[in-house]
Amino acid sequence: MTRDDVAGRITPEADRRRGDHDLNPGTVPASRLMAAAVLIPLVEREEGLAILLTRRTNHLEHHPGQISFPGGHREDDDAAPEITALRETEEEIGLARERIEVIGHLDTYVTRTGFEITPVVGVVTPPLDLTLDTHEVAEAFEVPLEHFLDPANHRRMSRMFEGRERFFWAMPYDDYYIWGATAGMLMNLYERLR
Question: How many helices (H) does the chain have, and how many strands (E)?
Answer without folding.
Answer: 4, 11
